[in-house]
Each structure stands twice: as structure tokens, then as C-alpha cells.
Amino acid sequence: MTTLLVIAKEPRPGRVKTRLTPPFTPREAAELAEAALADTLHAVAAAPASRRVLVLDGTPGPWLPPGFDVVPQCGGGLDERLAAAFAGCAGPALLIGMDTPQVTPALLTVDFADCDACLGPAEDGGFWALGMAVPDPRLLRGVPMSTASTGAVQRDRLVGAGLRLRDLPRLRDVDTAADARAVAARAPHGRFAARLARLTAVGGR
Fold first, then answer.
1. pTM (global) more than 0.90
2. Which of 13, 47, 64, 181 could form a disulfide with 30 if both were Cys (CB 3.0 to 4.6 A apart)?
3. Averaged pLDDT for residues 53-77
4. Which CATH fold topology does 3-203 show?
């Protein structure tokens, strides 16, 4: 069975979702980040897994459900931190971030019987999920992160290594207020959508 990894930052004002400010304040952006992270972790908790790991920059809070091992992120760029997360896995692993609160347990139920790797493209050109039947950290190191070509470069790395690749559905990351509204509309019953509705009503946005 697969290890499910979530790489995340502690949702503290000024450290997360800075592109949501404005229209939201840093504290409101952190509230939205916390709701997104909570939705993500609860989806992971409901998906089949041999192990569930939160790779965290910061300290766990009440948003963390039971059943997770918490390990600190290493230093370096995002590519190094993702590589290190995979390096800690002995068998099949799927890694996601905290920017897709619309993710479901079904999307996270990945079978590597007919593929060696899977990649979930994001609408902004990155990727929201990466899985490998045999984790190889070298396939992440040096991939330029947070660019419009990140997903394409990562895909080329996997295919160039001779891996049979399966595409997961394309999802939208929450980076901007427009992203937040679109994602909440796709998952209207989640914590993220509820928090966004409350903040929008209070702020008159």
C-alpha cells in the first residue's frame, strides 16, 4: 500500500498564502490556508494508505487529525524538500501539497500496478500531486519550482527515466482570490469553502 505525504507550512499570518493579500488580510489568508490544509489532511486520512506523513515547516496545530507522522522539512529549495520527503519512503509514495482543498480520497487512491509514476498537473503549470512506485529523489532535484513550466519539466524527468507515467486529473491551486472562489465553488461543502464564505460576508468582498 502507498505512503501518502503532505508537504505544508504551518498556517501563520504573513507566512502562507501571501498572494491572497489583498483583498484578504494576512490573518484572513492564514485562516484560509488552515482551512485548506485541514480539508487536505482529512482527505488523506480517509484514503487507503500504509502510512500518512505530514512534512511540515512549523509546528502542528489543532487542524492536524490523528493518524499522521509529522516530520520536519529539510532546508533548501522546494525541489530539495520534496526530494527529501520521498527519500524517507521505502515503498510506493504519493505526495501532495496544501493548495488543493478540493482533493478527495478517491483522487488519492493510486494503484501502481500498471504504472511507475503518476503526476497531477495544476492549472498554473505546476503539479499538485506526484507519486512514484519506487521513490527516486534524484528525479526532483533541480526541477525549477513555482514556474509555468514546473509540471512539464517534472514530467520530462519521469518519462526520461523510463518510467511508465499516468496522469491524474488537472486541479486548480489556491494562490489568488480568484483561485479561492473557483476552488470553493468546486468543493462547496468543505472547510475551505465555509471559511471563504464567512470571510467574504464579514469583509463585504
1. yes
2. 13
3. 97
4. Spore Coat Polysaccharide Biosynthesis Protein SpsA; Chain A (3.90.550)
Sheet holding 51-57, edge to edge: 69-72, 51-57, 3-9, 93-96, 127-132, 117-121, 165-167
Strand-pair category, 51-57 with 165-167: unpaired
> In angstroms, rounded to a whole number, what is the distance separating the alpha carbons of residues 174 and 87?
27
Q: Give the separation between CA 61 and CA 199, rounded to whole angstroms.
A: 21
List the grid coordinates of 140.
526532483
Specify the residue for cell string 519539466. Answer: 153
Under DSSP, the state recorded for 6 is E
Query: Are 130 and 95 contacting, i.e. CB atoms less than 8 angstroms apart?
Result: yes
119-153: per-residue pLDDT in tens? 999 999 999 999 999 999 999 999 999 999 999 99
Q: What share of the chain has pLDDT > 70, as a percent?
A: 99
End-to-end CA distance of the chain: 44
